[in-house]
Design brief:
Helices cover about 70% and strands about 5% of the residues. It is an all-alpha fold. The chain has one domain.
């Protein structure tokens, strides 16, 4: 299936896409250990859900929906219909991803570097999507990082 010029899940080299997503997702987890102030954060919705529901929504559904929306639909719209240069579309997509997280998490996390983290994450997801011409690596990276943040929130912090 092709979505705005980007393949979704039906590639013969999907194992490479999975490996790229896992390695870069693990890299983001390590980066969060090294610079814990730069994290995307969790929405307040996550506090009202049970553990399994929380993981399904934030660890699985959100990465799929957000990557399709920001790296698929938005970049596709800007490049195909607005004839915008690809790199500018990627920067706008990452900025939109950051603004979306501002709306979802509130302004208080800005002090902690959450929005810098979201911007870096959005740019990296864009470059991975373009490099592999597939959303799968970005979805996997996103899912790994969100799952790590949930683990950190539930186990380490105790929320």
């Amino acid at each position: 299936m092709v979505f705005f010029g980007i393949e979704l899940f039906d590639r013969s080299d999907w194992k490479k896409d999975v490996l790229v997503g896992v390695l870069i997702g693990a890299g983001f987890v390590v980066a969060n250990f090294l610079v814990p102030a730069i994290a995307i954060g969790m929405p307040s919705l996550s506090l009202s859900l049970g553990d399994l529901s929380r993981w399904l929504v934030i660890g699985l559904i959100a990465p799929v929906v957000e990557e399709i929306l920001f790296r698929g639909a938005l970049v596709g719209f800007l490049t195909n219909w607005k004839k915008m240069p690809l790199i500018l579309a990627g920067v706008i997509s990452a900025a939109a991803f950051t603004v979306y997280h501002l709306a979802a998490y509130g302004a208080s996390l800005a002090v902690a570097g959450a929005y810098l983290g979201a911007l870096i994450f959005g740019l990296l997801a864009f470059f991975i999507t373009k490099w592999r011409n597939n959303l799968l690596p970005a979805i996997i990276m996103h899912s790994i990082f969100n799952s790590y943040l949930l683990f950190k929130m539930v186990v380490v912090i105790g929320i």
